Amino acid sequence: MAASRRSDCPISFALDAFGDRWTLLVIRDLLFKHKHRYSEFLVSEERMATNILADRLRKLEDAGMITRTKAARNAGGVTYELTEKGLDLAPLLVEMILWSAKHDAATAAEPEFVATALQDKQALLAAVTRL
Q: Are residues 95 and 78 both part of a single domain?
């Protein structure tokens, strides 16, 4: 049974899918920081609690934005990857980075990344999403 929706508004739909800070940080880590294992997410500077991380990974998998793959028997553990649906969020995250770089004097946005995004956003997106 599908969860009830507040409305059919596209912004409301998007917020239901990824509208909390933790979900977008997991996507950020997968997309830009190349993190793929639970332990790698835990050492992000925001220090997400383990229960929140587990919940967000489960929600992203249920929403079809990431896949969860058990590693080979000898390697142990689980790896996470963005699906095409998850990769489709790349332009949104790049725009958020550019907005923050413009409006946050203390931003950690790398100047080279910002310059590349401003100069040739499509090439940057292609490189980031490996399209």
A: no
